[in-house]
Amino acid sequence: MDNGAKVINISLGSTTPQWPQSWDAAFLYAEQKDVVIVAAAGNRVGGNTQVGAPATIPGVLTVAGLDRKNVASVDASSQGISIGVAAPAENLLGGLPAGGYAEWAGTSGSTPIVAGVAALIRSKWPDMSAEQVINRIVSTAKDAGAPGKDPLYGYGILNAEAALKADVPEVSVNPLGTIAEWIRVHRRGNAAPATPLPTATSVPSAAPTLPEATVPAAKAPSQRDSAIGAAVVIGFAALFVAIIAAAAVQLRRAARNPSLAVEEPDTGVMESVKSRPDS
Length: 279
What we know:
The chain is α/β, with parallel strands linked by helices. The protein folds into 2 domains: about 5-185, CATH 3.40.50.200; about 230-255. It has helices at about 20-30, 105-125, 130-140, 160-165, 180-185, 225-255; strands spanning about 5-10, 35-40, 60-65, 85-90, 90-95, 100-105. It has a 4-stranded parallel β-sheet with strand order 1-2-3-4. The N and C termini lie far apart (about 165 Å).
């Protein structure tokens, strides 16, 4: 991308729709560099019953495979909601690095066909954005399968001529989504930076809601309490003195008159009572 690439073809994939978080930065960088990325949907014969990453990454133009009758290929294709268009994937002829040609099948062959059309569009309109290029390809595709976009054909079968000649209205967003928005939602890429914790000097302490604890102080008794206590003590003392005085008087009287203190002896004889004759 830093060397000026405007279209990237990815003829490889995986068996899982998830991708490592480390891929986010690479695809985001490509999106920011206005690069069109075209990726293979995968092949059932290779174990891809559904589209695998990187063809599931938002903003990537994913390509499904067709047989020679322009029907979704059973072996040389896959299915998934991220498919953008379908292109031939069976009985393909391709050049070899060392020279010569070979016949092959799979979305690894259909993907370069779509990437080539994207390169032709960018060659014809050098200033056209990646969003416009992708929109031109999917909006001019020939609908196939279920009406509208479906998981086998996407928007339809690639129509190279219409993509290069049709009058296509401009769009402001990529119809296949954007990795930047996906990161923002799923990776919390737009999370606000952490706010530094306030220091003790920057935030005043709140006023205490309870009074500070204090040790209770001894309280001097009041004059009233002292007077009542003294009266009670004096009253009990006077009563005690009166009892002692009464006892002394009684003892003195007994000493002066001993007869008052002599009791009659107990004889143990009962007096007989004479009965009176009946009159």
